Amino acid sequence: MTSLSALLDGTYSLPACNNTALAAAQQRQNQLTKPQGSLGRLEELALWMAGWQGTERPTLDAGNCLIFAGNHGITARGISAFPADVTAQMVANFTYGGAAINQLCDTAGLTLSVTPLMLDTPTADFSAGPAMSHDDVLVAFQAGMDAIPETCDYLVFGEMGIGNTTSAAALCAALFGGHGADWAGRGTGLDDAALAAKAAIIDEALIRHGRIFDSPQALLAAYGGRELAAIAGGVLAARARRIPVMLDGYICCAAAACLTLLDTAALEHCQISHLSAEQAHGRLSDALGKTPLLSLNMRLGEASGGAVATLLVRAALATHNGMASFAEAGVSGG
Amino acid sequence: MTSLSALLDGTYSLPACNNTALAAAQQRQNQLTKPQGSLGRLEELALWMAGWQGTERPTLDAGNCLIFAGNHGITARGISAFPADVTAQMVANFTYGGAAINQLCDTAGLTLSVTPLMLDTPTADFSAGPAMSHDDVLVAFQAGMDAIPETCDYLVFGEMGIGNTTSAAALCAALFGGHGADWAGRGTGLDDAALAAKAAIIDEALIRHGRIFDSPQALLAAYGGRELAAIAGGVLAARARRIPVMLDGYICCAAAACLTLLDTAALEHCQISHLSAEQAHGRLSDALGKTPLLSLNMRLGEASGGAVATLLVRAALATHNGMASFAEAGVSGG
To answer: Are A312 and A42 in contact (CB under 8 A)?
Structure first.
């Protein structure tokens, strides 16, 4: 495996999609018993899996769902409807098997792993100073890399962290411009006044830390949090291994977006699973040039949208690998 | 089972959703370890299944996917990109297991049944006269009813019939107003000129048969086709048994829409699985007051969108039935 420092040193070039495999998969799609293109985005998903796995017949035999959890000092400013204790309680719920993501991973045939990141040591309040040190970021990046099993053909990333939509919004504002109000949303359920206060806190932080960063590490050190850095590290490591990645909602996409500071094409191996109900997720998806696969008004996080979208990938591969060709089935046309 | 004639005689009142079960399921959702409403439309699907199955804990243990196939005399007017022979060839492909729907039913855990309806006797060219007799319609209705197994807790309906988007468009224009151009689409792949010709043929037929019909049977006799009548019969029979129904795309929805002549609330037990790429499907969904669950640019028919959306129902039930409550998991809030 390529080391973290090699991936981040600016000279490593990220591998591209395998165009030979992609062309072979497209050729196969064109021969299947359906009007060409009639399976819409299911065809796109089959080709995406083929290109990144480097095979005409992609698989989803070793799919993993990786959740990272972190705590956030910014919660001291009252930007969440739930208390910070809920992060650790939900990690326990993931372990116990009682959360939404447990049921969704079972349904989607994904192996779930949960990585809590120093839950007893929240990041600092980023409206008052940097969320964490450069070393903290590297430790979290490495945790993201290390969470990917040796055998893995597909990845879903997700997060848990009370307060982390505030970090996500600040990262987006720094990366793509705009103010706190453009990127802040209601999270788990803020009212109008609390939403306005959240936006103002992000604007404070933008003035303190600015918007100019020369690396994902520097950006994440300013605005946090640990679980977002872990997702960035994991998504980058997946790219180095050409593993297709399904991103969950707003926070997960914001974390991955930090990698565009390293390489503007850093997320070519990623799909956005769903358009979250968090109001700025559409803006973020547009900024990343990607169209979410689902739009189900979900806003839970914990990789839930990613797991549901994995069902579409299963449908895509079942048709791609299992359908008869026009010639095999004796059907006219094609 | 309630007989077809009883269902159609105008005095039978369709059963409603079980509001006690619905309320119990809502109460359960509110206690699960997630912010209320954060699973979005997955929660809506769980409640829909609960209300129609009449239980707090709905199941998808005996889900059936019913495809009906028919041939259309209107194909003589050149309104399809594929030859009419393809209907029978695709029915053979369904039986052989090589079509998209075979793979999608496997993925979604649905039992597939295919009912070909007099493929050697296409309906008449409805631009020149009625597509079929009143008795033909009743025979097809009955075939739709009979295709539902005795043990069944969930249904997907779909169709195969070269030329049937033209019938569907004419049915929609008669039911909801507008001209051929408002309801005609490219089907399996018409170019601009062929699309305009298709719209003109529908306008001819609308002049011939008019838009005023006092029953689904009369409407379907005018514009066809057999597989559309079978879907209407099946959706009606499902309602009498309170079985939740997942509709496929444009044609399937147009067939079901005919039932609104019997009762404006006839489709309360139905969801629309996906927004088809067929251009008028959004207009039709709006007319039915329903929002499609998926939008994947699919346009294959054969229940493919219905089978894919069934994956969302599975995800919905897995979370609804499997998640821990706040109290069980020791999580704060809720």
So the answer is: yes
